[in-house]
Amino acid sequence: MSDAFRDRIDIALTVNGEPVEARVPAGRHLVDFLRLDLGLTGSHAGCEHGVCGACTVKVDGEAVRGCLMLAAQADGAEVWTLEGLTQSGVIRDLQDAFVARNALQCGYCTPGMLTSIEELLNRGGVPERAEIREHLSGNYCRCTGYEAIVDAVESVARARAEKGAA
Amino acid sequence: MKALAGGYAQARDLRHALDLLGQADGMGRVLAGGQSLIAAMNMRLTSGDLLVDISRIAELRGVALDGGWLRIGALTRHAEIGRDALIARHAPLLTRAVGHIAHSAIRNRGTIGGSLAHADPAAEFPACVLALEAVLHLDGPDGRRDVAAEDFFLGVFETAIEEGEILTGISVPVAQDGERHVLREAARRSGDYALAGLCLLRRTAGHRLAAFGVGPCPILARGAMEKLDHGDIDGAVAALSGEIDPPGDTQASAAYRRHLAGVLLRRALSDLEGEQS
């Protein structure tokens, strides 16, 4: 094998605002890096082929699949997981709405769900229910039947819009 | 399962990427957005690859207008294609395709070049570039060559890209005045690969019809195009049925996909009429 290719790669990035340096195996995906190397178990590894959405995290401001990005590719990136989003308080209203409306049961999908919704809410305005459903089509929930989740998103979008207008 | 990569290297620029591929001794694999490749690696459909990560090469990303052509960098992401004003104006078929590709988080990282090079038979962009008569640009150790979309897709996951080459860009002829583009597909769930799909263009010179999910690679339905040019819709549906070669699997039988193709063609034509009114 050529020396140009490494099976362990040195990376430096920020995770939830904190600088992190690590040496990662070439094939390790981002969500395993977060869970196994950094102990941030808020991001869940589900299907590991991009279908279920449980691993959704924020990378450089965008929601992405943590299982479809290598940790090596996160060199220099700004990563936010549910732990960071929770601590910073940016989705407090959304988390409260999830509890109030029973928008979760087992909780496995919830971190990915919240991270995907955060991106949708950041666009502003009050999305139609169909748009909410479409945006969440890549986040599987096997407990709730989605209705309560859509309710929670809609209520937070409304509340934020009213607060913005006031 | 977990991916098993043979090694990883991040390319600084195109020259570096080509050098890395050359050094990989046949084990090189170009990594762009990774939305298909990393899934395949996680499932161990491929292992031991020497990954050449081109995703940071800025020169391969972005959209520009160049005379009668739209130049689209291979690393332009689906989400960027979906919100690009030049594409919406000059190649609206691509804008329409984006909403059908997987889900928001995947569109944030997946690239048009990656989708074309991967050549999934049920993917949208391969059929789009076929319908649009796009030209694909391949860079290799001996320089650049251009391949027409019609000559690019050879079979299931098989393209004209040779060992050591990288798909670097796509040129799409800009839509003429009055040109109409529609895309219709049927999938079991939003974001799933299509059971069957169609890209339909109406130009002054005639119709262009490309089908996906109904054969080993996207199909230009010439017989149906000719019937459409003569206003023969029933004839076009019959011709399309004969031109496609749909697979049967757990998602849908071949006969169902063939039926869907006809239904989608009628709906696409109805979309075209609606657009003009």
TrEMBL record, chain A:
Gene3D superfamilies: 3.10.20.30, [2Fe-2S]-binding domain (1.10.150.120). SUPFAM superfamilies: 2Fe-2S ferredoxin-like, CO dehydrogenase ISP C-domain like. InterPro entries: 2Fe-2S-bd, 2Fe-2S-bd_dom_sf, 2Fe-2S_ferredoxin-like_sf, 2Fe-2S_ferredoxin-type, 2Fe2S_fd_BS, Beta-grasp_dom_sf, Diverse_Oxidoreductases. This is Carbon-monoxide dehydrogenase small subunit. Keywords: 2Fe-2S, Iron, Iron-sulfur, Metal-binding, Oxidoreductase. PANTHER family: OXIDOREDUCTASE WITH IRON-SULFUR SUBUNIT (PTHR44379), XANTHINE DEHYDROGENASE IRON-SULFUR-BINDING SUBUNIT XDHC-RELATED (PTHR44379:SF8). Residues 9-85 form the 2Fe-2S ferredoxin-type domain. GO terms for molecular function: 2 iron, 2 sulfur cluster binding; metal ion binding; oxidoreductase activity. PROSITE patterns: 2FE2S_FER_1 (PS00197), 2FE2S_FER_2 (PS51085).
Automatic annotation (TrEMBL), chain B:
The keyword Nucleus does not apply. One of its GO terms (molecular function) is FAD binding. SMART domains: CO_deh_flav_C. Pfam families: CO_deh_flav_C, FAD_binding_5. InterPro entries: CO_DH_flav_C, CO_DH_flav_C_dom_sf, Diverse_Substr_Oxidored, FAD-bd_PCMH, FAD-bd_PCMH-like_sf, FAD-bd_PCMH_sub1, FAD-bd_PCMH_sub2, Mopterin_DH_FAD-bd. The keyword Oxidoreductase applies. Keywords: FAD, Flavoprotein, Oxidoreductase. Residues 1-177 form the FAD-binding PCMH-type domain. PROSITE patterns: FAD_PCMH (PS51387). This is Carbon-monoxide dehydrogenase medium subunit. The lineage of its organism: Bacteria, Pseudomonadati, Pseudomonadota, Alphaproteobacteria, Rhodobacterales.
